[in-house]
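Researcher:
Attend to token order:
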Amino acid sequence: MLKLFKFLKPYWWQIAILFVLTCVQVYTTLQLPALTADIINNGIVSGEVDYILMVGRNMILLALLSALCSLISSYLSAKIGADFAKEVRAAIFQKIINLNLTDMKDFSTASLTNRTTNDVNQVQQTMMMMLSMLIRAPLFCVISIIMALQTAPDMSWIIVVGVVAILGSTISIMAFVIPKFRIFQKLLDKITSITRESLTGLRVIRAFNNEKMEERKFERTNNTLTKLIIFIDKIMKLENPIINFVMNGATLLCTYIGITLLTKDFAYLGNMSAFAQYVTHVMMSFLMLSMFFVMLPRANVSANRIDEVLKTPERIKWRKETRGVPSSTPSVEFKNVDFSYEGAEEKVLENVSFTAKAGETTAFIGSTGSGKSTLINLVPRFYEATAGEILINGIDIRDYKKEDLMSKIGLVPQRGLLFSGTIKSNIKFGAPNATDEEVKYAARIAQATNFIEKLPNGYDSHIAQGGTNVSGGQKQRLSIARAICKNPDIFIFDDSFSALDMKTDAKLRAALKPVTNTAVTLMVAQRVSTIKDADQIIVLDSGKVAGKGTHKELLKKSKVYQSIVKSQLSDEEFKREMEEAHA
């Protein structure tokens, strides 16, 4: 929890006001028992009605002041807690957004979701309790004990017995509960993960008639979580009856001893009444503190989970300003680039070198796992090359400011990803200031105009989160339109035509040519037909360059490329391709 206190700095003045109000509330509240004793001893016993009225009026004023301070302090603690949670959520989200794929390997999506929502809420509730109770309860406790000892020192041992009983029960309960909270958070992550996975793969689950299997998987985790919650609740619920027993026992002892002493001095009645109220305040203070300390372990687990995200080191460091002046002519150059995942023995890419020029298409092809997608993910620095250099427009990508590098890249991922909003907002995602004409132009190039204009609201039609209300081919076309609308120096197509039929694929590639004639085009594809006309094809095999050249050149000299082409064509078509290459 202490690690997150830095988020309270902007609200120090509100905390200061809260502290002052709490002190006033404690003072006014603890004056009431003393005034009650005064009324009894000097008013009721003596029969002084005017004195009773005067002290009673003062008690009402103090009670009103105490209530007002309590109201304002409760508002401030709730406001500070809400603002604190807002700052923490914003910090987590900002951290997640800026983490690279390598940095996020230790966190699942479900875990990050829970840390941003459930864990922050848990810390917020504890922080609100801390602000409202951690100042008030100790003040009430200490001052009440002092005033109780001054009022009736003969009964002070009752407070000691009650405090020891409450502390003993609280420590015992915490010893049982603390380890369970860590397990609780992990099970909650697992529940979220299973739910997310089932919802994402709902079509596949139904297609294979595996609903029962998924239900059983969810039920096992859900039952474990439920049993744990019941166990935690049973242990924690012991706190209230124990404290009630201690409080009622203390009250009975006060009454019994007080009545015994009244036989010697009737004026002791006021002192007995005041002492009983002070004992109640002491016990209530320990009740509040015990509630806080029972909540604290769970909040501490949540705070540690939040801190794990916030302190995750960013392995990829960006410069604050771009070093050097990029060339006005776009280019991408790999110089002896290696890449391997952290902790892995084998290299995913090894000694990759090539140059991609403006106005040309450089395509990458290879078997599954050959490193195609990894290679193009190095260009926007989603991963960092472990050796070699990558130059964009003549400058090493490590010398770029993040915003400057990303502004030059238009990425179309393998899985077309859309955001909740409209078709227009998705196309304008990389170019917020694009005009309607530019949006329509990008859609026309991406062959998306036909299906967009058939929708009732056209470009203002709603897109669900993840683009679940459009087909795979439509998502890909809108993703391509988004990249075109950005008008970047470098287009990256990561198998972005796989969901398109051959006819649409051909039309789209033909329409792209005038758009990309001044830009570098990097294209990953599985279909040879998609990259057949590329200016340069790079064949990857187990992370190494197994061939480089045009389609015809590779058919002549690359056995790996020949096998790829042969696997996608009939024997007759392959024979014809080979003849044309050697013609």
